[in-house]
Each structure stands twice: as structure tokens, then as C-alpha cells.
From TrEMBL:
<dbReference type="GO" id="GO:0016491">
    <property type="term" value="F:oxidoreductase activity"/>
</dbReference>
<dbReference type="InterPro" id="IPR036291">
    <property type="entry name" value="NAD(P)-bd_dom_sf"/>
</dbReference>
<dbReference type="InterPro" id="IPR057326">
    <property type="entry name" value="KR_dom"/>
</dbReference>
<dbReference type="InterPro" id="IPR002347">
    <property type="entry name" value="SDR_fam"/>
</dbReference>
<feature type="domain" description="Ketoreductase">
    <location>
        <begin position="16"/>
        <end position="187"/>
    </location>
</feature>
<keyword id="KW-0560">Oxidoreductase</keyword>
<protein>
    <submittedName>
        <fullName>Short-chain dehydrogenase/reductase SDR</fullName>
    </submittedName>
</protein>
<dbReference type="Pfam" id="PF13561">
    <property type="entry name" value="adh_short_C2"/>
</dbReference>
<comment type="similarity">
    <text>Belongs to the short-chain dehydrogenases/reductases (SDR) family.</text>
</comment>
């Protein structure tokens, strides 16, 4: 970030109103801090409002603009209300990082994946993004367009025997991302996805607790030999939401240290 004078920060996202789901921890929390530091006004959504309030206070302390909104991705009404809150706060929306997601409650194989697990994966990791994108696009159109980034996963790209429902819903999300990009391009709305590989967040720690050794196996299979940090993933989302990516739409961008190559 550069400064034109002491008080006006000029960053990659200056002047933009950005909505971030799954902002209470992990990649979303890193994105909240990054995007705010790059000049965006951020609206942070998740169920854990205490964590969101802490982040909002930190960002405001650093001179940024941030607000929190409670939202449950399994509840369509809650998602629409959260986007309505953005409209109420700012009257516009320039970018959305649809990043919230949940890992499977139990690991595979697919034969034993429970109905509840499949239903949660469908609602939280797929349907939520459809509902959110439609609301976000409607608000973006009022000011001539915007940009959307959906967090998919390297698990969308190939068979995922330990996480069959997760992988399937993330692949479905890639399809929706591409369709939205083509549908809304004439309206000035760009839509892209990112496919993180193993990323050092609580989601991976929780998976490690269920499947000891999964992080070491992930690192061994990764050309860079380690997980990405949450910030490294957020950086790519920030680029895709910025004007620097003005010709990028319908892309599903790997952020996986080469693990999918
Ligand atoms: N970490 C990895 O290795 C990895 C790899 C590939 C893809 N990803 C994807 O990256 C995204 C972020 O993952 P992460 O690693 O940062 O995970 P995380 O640390 O578990 O954070 C997940 C976020 O999603 C929110 N969330 C989960 N269920 C929700 C619900 N029903 N309603 C609203 N918010 C909900 C959580 O907030 P609340 O609990 O407060 O609601 C939290 O903020 C996810 O889409 C994940 O699938 C992660």
C-alpha cells in the first residue's frame, strides 16, 4: 500500500465495498484484514459474531472500515438478509468473496457418508453460493457491476475418496461459477473461483484430528512441501476482486503450491 499523504491510503481495493463470507476465521478472516488494509470497506459474515466483532474492532483500530453481520449459510433467508445489510450500510456492493464453507463431519468412503453430511455439504458448500451470488449480483448491477470470487477447493478437481460429498459440491460450485461468469459478463459482473490446496487453518487442524497424518501427507504431496497460509490464499482473492483482474472472468484459479499440477 502506498500513501498519497498521511491520511489517505491508496490500496489495490481502495473505495470498494466488499462482502466476505466465512470471515470469522481462517482464509476469510485473513481476507478481511488484507482487503481492509488495501482500502476496502468490508462487511464480514459468519455465525460466530463474537469473532467477527473482534475482527471489526481490530480493523477499525487500524483506521479501516468494517462491519459484521450474522449469517448462516445453511439458511437462504439469512444469506439474503446479510446482503440486504450491505445495502443498508453502504447502498452498493463492488465485490463479494463467497468463502464460507464446511468440511465433512465424517470422512469417507462414500458408502458410509451420512444423509446429514450430504445435506449439509449441499446447503453450505453449494446452494449457499447460488443464493448469495444472485443477491450480490442484483446489488452490484445498480452501480454498473462488480466482482465475485467463490472459494472452491483442489478437491473439486479430481476424485476425493476421503471427502466425497465435499469434493462433489465444490465441483458443482465450479460449474456455477463459470455459468454465472458467462451469464453476467454483459452486465459488468466478473465471477471467478479459487481452488486452494491444503491451507493452514482450523479446518485442516480439525481434519488432522479426524485423520491423523493428513497434514504431513498433504505436505509430502505438495511441490512446495507445505500448506499455504490463509493470507497467501486471500491475496489471490484480493487480486481477482481488484481492477487489476478486469479481464479475468470464469477462471478457476489454483492456489495449491502446485499440488494440482
Ligand atoms: N483449509 C484448507 O485446506 C482448504 C482447502 C481448500 C478449500 N478450502 C475452502 O476455503 C474456505 C475457507 O476455509 P478455511 O480453511 O478458512 O476454513 P475454516 O477455518 O473452517 O473457516 C470456515 C469459515 O466458514 C464459516 N462457516 C462454516 N459454516 C458456516 C455456516 N453454516 N454459515 C456461515 N458461515 C459458516 C465459518 O464461520 P462460523 O463457524 O463462524 O459460521 C468460518 O468463518 C472454505 O470454503 C473451504 O472449503 C479450505
Amino acid at each position: 500500500m502506498t500513501h498519497t499523504n498521511e491520511s489517505i491510503p491508496v490500496g489495490m481495493l481502495t473505495g470498494k465495498v466488499l462482502f466476505i463470507t466465512g470471515a470469522s476465521r481462517g482464509i476469510g478472516a485473513a481476507a478481511a484484514q488484507l482487503f481492509a488494509s488495501q482500502g476496502a470497506s468490508v462487511v464480514l459474515a459468519a455465525r460466530n459474531t463474537a469473532a467477527l466483532d473482534t475482527l471489526v474492532a481490530q480493523i477499525r483500530d487500524e483506521g479501516g472500515t468494517a462491519d459484521a453481520v450474522a449469517m448462516d449459510l445453511s439458511d437462504r433467508t439469512s444469506i439474503r438478509a446479510a446482503v440486504d445489510r450491505v445495502e443498508h450500510l453502504h447502498g452498493r456492493l463492488d465485490g463479494a468473496f463467497n468463502n464460507g464453507g464446511v468440511n465433512q463431519q465424517d470422512v469417507g468412503p462414500l458408502d458410509t457418508t451420512s444423509d446429514d453430511d450430504i445435506d449439509e455439504q449441499f446447503a453450505v458448500n453449494f446452494r449457499s453460493h447460488w443464493v448469495a451470488m444472485v443477491s450480490e449480483a442484483a446489488l452490484m448491477r445498480r452501480t454498473g457491476g462488480g466482482a465475485i470470487v467463490n472459494t472452491s477447493s483442489i478437491g473439486s478437481r479430481r476424485a476425493v475418496p476421503p471427502l466425497p460429498a465435499y469434493g462433489a459440491m465444490k465441483r458443482a460450485l465450479n460449474s456455477l461459477t463459470e455459468t454465472a461468469a458467462v451469464t453476467w459478463a454483459p452486465q459488468g459482473i466478473r465471477v471467478n473461483g479459487i481452488t486452494p490446496g491444503g491451507t493452514a487453518t482450523e479446518m485442516m487442524e480439525e481434519w488432522e484430528a479426524k485423520t491423523p497424518g493428513i497434514i504431513a501427507a498433504n505436505n509430502a504431496a505438495s511441490p512446495i512441501g507445505r500448506m499455504a497460509t490463509a493470507l497467501e490464499v486471500a491475496e489471490v482473492a484480493g487480486f481477482l476482486l481488484s481492477n487489476r483482474a478486469s479481464a479475468v472472468t470464469g477462471a478457476i484459479v489454483p492456489v495449491d503450491g502446485g499440488a494440482g499440477a
